[in-house]
Amino acid sequence: MMYESIFRDIIDIIHHDYLGCKDKEGWDHPEEFEDSLHEGITKSMEIST
To answer: Which domain of life is it from (predicted)?
Structure first.
């Protein structure tokens, strides 16, 4: 899915290219947000059909 790919790209940038990534290592939990993103996409697909 396009949105999931964009989300993963953003997480990759934050984890590897962000200036403070070493200082904030382990502070985030992107998998929780990825799950809610997936649920939202699934619901919107159900509504549009």
So the answer is: Bacteria
pLDDT per position as a tens digit, 16-35: 777 776 777 767 777 878 88
Q: Are 37 and 2 in contact (CB under 8 A)?
A: no
C-beta separation of 6 from 30 below 8 A? no
- Stated pTM of the model: 0.53
Report residue 39 as tokens.
């649920």
Q: CB of 21 within 8 A of CB of 14?
A: yes
- The vertex-22 CA angle with 21 and 25, nearest 5°, equals 80
**Can you give the residue ranges of every domain in the chain?**
2-47
